[in-house]
Amino acid sequence: MSTKNHIQTLENESIFIMREVAAQFDKPVLLFSGGKDSITLAHLAKKAFYPAKIPFTFMHIDTGHNFQETIDFRDELIAELGVDLIVRYVQDSIDQNKVKEETGKYASRNSLQTVTLLDAIEEFGFDACLGGARRDEEKSRAKERIFSVRDDFGQWDAKKQRPELFQILNGKINFGENVRAFPISNWTEEDVWTYILQENLKLPSIYFAHQRKLVKRDGSFLAYSDYLNIVDTDEIVEDVVRFRTVGDMTCTAALISDADTVEKVLNENKASKHSERGARIDDQRSESALEQRKKGGYF
Amino acid sequence: MIKGVNLLWNNVKKEDIFKMDLLRISTAGSVDDGKSTLIGRLLYDTNALTKEQEQLIEKKTAEKGLKDLDFSVITDGLIAEREQGITIDVAHIYFSTRSRKFIIADSPGHVEYTRNMVTGASNAEVSIILIDARKGLLEQSYRHYFISQLLRLGTVVFCINKMDLVDYSEDTFLQIAADVKKMVDSYEFSKPNIEIIPISSLKGDNVVNTSENTPWYQGATLNDILHSISPSNKGDRAFRMDVQQVLHVQNEEFTDFRGFSGRISSGNIKIGDTLTVLPSGKSSTVKEIRQYENVLEEAHAGDSVIISLNDEVDASRGSLLVKPEEQPEASKSLDATLVWLNEDAAHLGGRYIIQAGSRQNQVKLQQIHYLTPPENPELKLESSKLELNDIAKVELRLAQAVFLDNYRENKANGTFILIDPQTNNTCAVGFVGS
Ligand SMILES: Nc1nc2c(ncn2[C@@H]2O[C@H](COP(=O)(O)OP(=O)(O)O)[C@@H](O)[C@H]2O)c(=O)[nH]1
Ligand SMILES: [Mg+2]
Question: In chain A, how many H helices and how many E strands?
Fold first, then answer.
């Protein structure tokens, strides 16, 4: 009898889930943001089906406010994996008057993504979307299923989620519904970094310490960019930082850090005890921000 | 407050983190017995909370004007729940110490309790049952224990909570402990490993830190017990693997690759072993066991692998791989214990889809032998329908034979769910035999 460590157990479970998605759905898509969780997902997909090809199309909902490093990384990884990538732009939804650009100091396109995503799901007829959300990220995620059923409007209803028992995944859906599937539900941020260390995965450079021009606002640091509405009280500084999540440039806070390797990042995260969502300005707006956005079809 | 349990990772060697294992726990208790507080305490004292969570606890505690920390804000997550002050669904909580990662399924306790607990505990190896020291064993405690044993969890830890409210009385504790033992003996189940601990979640006694208020208690803390349990060994069971997909590959490197992907649910396998594919009954020997680029000599329960056979036998999603000498019985009739999980009741003669692993089949609810009220399973009530939270002994008729084991012998291949073909909802979970 072999004993497995926690990372091996999680990997085996995630691969099982990936294969269930491939087998149970006609048109699954893997939502790829270029962040560490979706990079982990992509790697798991490669391992789950090898020597066969990854049976999923990848899709990126591009807010137009991404870090250039993430976009470059995305394109390199897609080429390396040999999968198809669909990109849909929040800018297009804005131009079509489907959503309205936010204004003011905290303007962000993060919540506008939902509309672009739902339109893309409809455009291609995807019946399952694989995502890298984890239950440890936030309280309302803690109640998320591995297969989460959404209606036409992408809406999530906590009370209507199907019970999931043992390792049995029920992917049967009615016409017009689709499923969001979360293979790394049971991973924590630490598990993801440990896996990145174990598998020697490449990540976009912004995850590691680098020199950057910054905007100091409300006690946190944002990357300086043209997308940010700079106000009088903002202070422009320069420092060595890294990012813990790679969302939009407008709402992802930088950490002052000189951690330039995966091991150092793991150590520093553990020692700092701050959650990664603490680094997302949009989630701090209110205590239940994410739950509300999820009800509206947000990933 | 001692917070030294979860020492920072930089004091741990890189190799150590790859030696950690994983233990899944489920918690049970009636409303207000202190589940949320206990989980919060466990995380707080093992230093597993983030700064934001610690600040939130302090803020809420101050807002409510409490003198002890209010941990419930950590687990009572959704808006609807906070408004109503209840927990509506199974929440998953993660924490790790130096040697182990824990996943806690916190199931709320009220009307839908049975459904939530069965769901939350289905992947657990340990159940923590809370008992309020002031109240002792309640009807619900019987239900909680019954469900933990319907699932046949290997360890049940009874936490006698709120000991601070009974002046840490040894007599009170001993009386409740005696009642617990009596209850355990009154059920027909084979005895799990039982632990009984006097704790106060609110004050932190015997959760992570040994209490000075219970000098008469020589046993271990909850945290110590959770670290001493070894994850269950599914390796000594018969080999079972559901085929998830058949993969065909033809390229320069793999001129003609054909393999069955799946996760081994029980038992072991090695190169050269003979395997039988069910339902076809055709056999062949194992040519290759693959995990990504690695070709293995052998594989074990829990491994996601791709198995290639030496002969071209027919198999597809829905096939089960077994060893010829350990085949499960083929049957078109199934005796099982069902837990009904759906708001819509089931009626005699109702038709459903049964899913076991990746196998699906049509079934009919042929007979309801009797309902088993979990607080008093001896009662055996007659009924012609199954309502939410009912537990019943039933007979199912199948369109095609299924190859399931008795849950007692093989958990992984002894369970199934029922799906309502109209709504596609998961409406029941079943345990074969039991
Ligand atoms: N005095 C005392 N109160 C407790 C203890 N554990 C929980 N409580 C209180 O009991 C109430 C219900 O606790 P909670 O954790 O929300 O219970 P749950 O419904 O099982 O999750 C809260 O007011 C807690 O502060 C304990 O050990 N001692
Ligand atoms: Mg609670």
Answer: 9, 10
State how beta strands A57-62 and A85-89 pair.
Answer: parallel
Same domain? For B215 and B246 the reply is: no
At B405, the pLDDT band (50, 70, 90 cuts) reads very high
pLDDT at B1: 30
How many CB atoms sit inside 10 A of residue B210's CB? 16
Give the structural domain span for B380.
330-432
Residues 6+ apart with CB under 8 A from A298: A111, A113, A114, A154, A290
Sorted by sequence, the CB contacts under 8 Å of residue B92 that are 6+ apart come out as A135, A142, A143, A185, A186, B103, B104, B105, B106
- B359 part of a folded domain: yes
Q: What are phi and psi of A281, to 5 degrees?
A: -60, -35
Per residue in B283-319, pLDDT (tens digit) is 999 999 999 999 999 999 999 999 999 999 999 999 9
Least-confidence region, from A37-41, B64-68, B99-103, B370-374: B64-68
Judged on CB neighbours under 10 Å (0-12, 13-18, 19+), A272 is middle
Cα of B37 vs centre of ligand 1, distance in Å, is 6
Instruction: Report the side by side order of strands in the sheet with B193-198.
Output: B91-96, B100-106, B21-28, B126-132, B155-161, B193-198
| Test mutation, B247, B249, B343, B411, chain A, max A CBs within 10 A | B247
Residues B320 and B334 in one domain: no
Please check whether residues B193 and B48 belong to one and the same domain: yes
Q: Are residues B169 and B310 in the same domain?
A: no
Confirm or reject contact between B304 and chain A (CB < 8 A). yes
* Residues B179 and B220 occupy one common structural domain: yes
Whether residues B58 and B125 share a domain: the answer is yes
Provide the pLDDT for residue B200: 98
On whether any CB of chain B is under 8 Å from the CB of A105, the answer is no
Tell which one of B37, B172, B213 to mutate to probe ligand 1, the residue whose CB is within 8 A of the most ligand atoms: B37
| Per-residue confidence (pLDDT) for residue B2, from 0 to 100 | 32
The rounded Å distance from CA A216 to ligand 2 centre is: 39
Pairing verdict, β B155-161 and B415-419 = unpaired
The mean pLDDT value of chain B amounts to 90
Q: What's the structural domain count of chain B?
A: 3
CATH 3.40.50.620 positions along chain A are: 6-193+288-295
Average pLDDT of the segment spanning B392-421: 96
Contact at 8 Å (CB) between B62 and B70?
no
Exposure class string for A239-260: b at 16+ Cβ within 10 A, else e: eebbbbbbbbbbbbbbbebebe
Taking chain A (299 residues) in consecutive chunks of 10 residues, what is each chunk's mean pLDDT? 83 98 98 96 98 97 93 97 97 92 85 91 96 86 87 73 93 92 96 96 97 93 91 94 88 91 91 64 47 56
Given this model, what pLDDT does residue B90 score?
82
The CATH number of the structural domain formed by A6-193+288-295 is 3.40.50.620
- CB of B342 closer than 8 Å to CB of B428: yes
B267 and B335 share a domain? Answer: no
Residues 6+ apart with CB under 8 A from A70: A33, A34, A35, A204, A206, A246
Q: Which residues lie at CB < 5 A from ion ligand 2?
A: B 35-36, 87
